[in-house]
Amino acid sequence: MITDYSIQAVAINAIPLIFAITIHEAAHGYAARKFGDNTAYMLGRVSLNPAKHIDPVGTILIPLVLILTGSPFLVGYAKPVPVNFGRLRNPRIDSIWVALAGPGSNFIQAVIWAIFWVLVQGVGIDEPFLTSMAKAGVMWNIGLLVFNLFPLPPLDGGRILAGLLPARQSIALGRLEPWGFFIVLGLVFTGIIGSLWMEPLSNFFLGIINLLMTPLRMIF
Question: Do 91 and 99 touch, CB atoms closer than 8 A?
Answer without folding.
Answer: no
